[in-house]
């Protein structure tokens, strides 16, 4: 009986400790002169990497796995201290010290750090391969925490490469594992990376929410360097969201932490954020000295390129044309020298900066030409990278994640109640108690997995049109209602386009409903492929579709409608043999106004415009009357 109590207490103690730990870095079997010193330094790598770096360097050379472990701890500390020139040397030294019989934990965590090092050097594709290997091999060795840590870093590497959909899919798995493992550190880490992804894809409210969660998690753990990183991420999200005052305040907090720690890389990041924010606020007098300091701080070249863009616009606004063009030329040289930036939005933005410079200097014809080049390149990039299916999948992933989080918390609460009851019963018999413990844990895991699987399946069925795989009427109107509810009437607009296929009844009557269904699928896919990031399309009736275009005025929405009309008109749907069908559609376009700010009013305006399009001969675009 006493043995059962002791064993149960030990199991509960291990579970409690694992719920408060970060990924283990040192294997349990590590021994020899220096092993105890390394174990004492392992927690400092996470709580105080500045001190850990100094003490690890002072330990001096060790032997075999001990030396590999010393460099592993040093490399992990350097990851968040950002001296990127020292990180490769620490990782390489760690690999050199490994032997054929070294502990797998050392090897696989070094592989993860090597993937982080490769990403820091800008080769995101190779970094993703390295990190995927690290996660897979660690998982094969039964090193779950190490595999999860590598998976989170893999998601971040995909984010840096601009593969946001892949990053969300990878991170979804990591977030689920972190929740199931009750690992607060990895939960905070995945929240932080969610914040980065949503910042990149312009979903700033979500970015701020996730980054604040990460900050709370790191503060609860007492990890100041990770708190600082979250504050920087929060400041960046505020900056992109247009909340300049909140961004400046957060960047100042980050700067104070970095100055107190004498962290040069952190100082550069703070100067970068403050300089960029003040420039975007139009406060060039404050921005230019900060940008000059940042450019002299030996930061990453791609960050220097962004600083030079802002400096160029500020110089032009001050009337100094030569200084403006010189800054732009320096930025262009940096970006053109980096193959990974070719064709990205950072390279395309050079033309917009050039247009801003010409406009500030009064060369409006040159400004128009540069702006036209920018918009053409931007449109090409949007067409390449965006589709409605990816947007819908992103929304489905987010909804599934939130639902899973709630469900998991409920299951954990039930699990704790069952655990207390089971402990009382298990005290009666050693054998029966152990069996009940194992069976209870297995039952909880099965319930969680079963509920997660059904939740995903039911969520997908509830928002999809069975025939076209587009969003259904209920989902699109929920999205539109939420969009309008969060829209300030004096700032921002939303447009919708109502689409109805012309004479579709004739198609069904002449060729049959299977052919009609084929036409609807082809039209739905064609319309979805021309949409931009953030746009939504749904099937809202038999042959009727609805486009929701956030942050889009009436002129831009009309352009989208004309592209859709031309796309539909160009389609040829095969029937039997060599015969094919050509269909056309009519379009009604409406935009929010101070007097048209509800779903019903906006939809009624688009419907009336569509009616006029039908009356005027069909296969045309009509705009709603001004309200």
Multimeric organization: single chain
Q: Summarize the amount of helix as a percent range.
A: over 70%
Strand content: 5-15%
Low-confidence stretches: 1-20
Structure report:
It contains 26 helices and seven strands. The protein has a five-stranded mixed sheet, sandwiched between helices. The longest helix has 39 residues. The N and C termini lie far apart (81 Å). 39% of the residues are buried. The N terminus is likely disordered.
Secondary-structure map with pairings?
Blueprint: H1 2-18, H2 35-47, H3 49-59, H4 65-81, H5 87-97, H6 104-120, H7 124-140, H8 144-160, H9 164-181, H10 184-200, H11 204-221, H12 224-241, H13 244-260, H14 264-280, H15 284-295, H16 301-317, H17 321-337, H18 345-360, H19 364-385, H20 388-426, H21 430-463, H22 473-485, E1 494-501, H23 504-511, H24 513-529, E2 536-539, E3 544-550, H25 554-570, E4 573-574, E5 580-581, E6 585-591, H26 599-615, E7 621-623
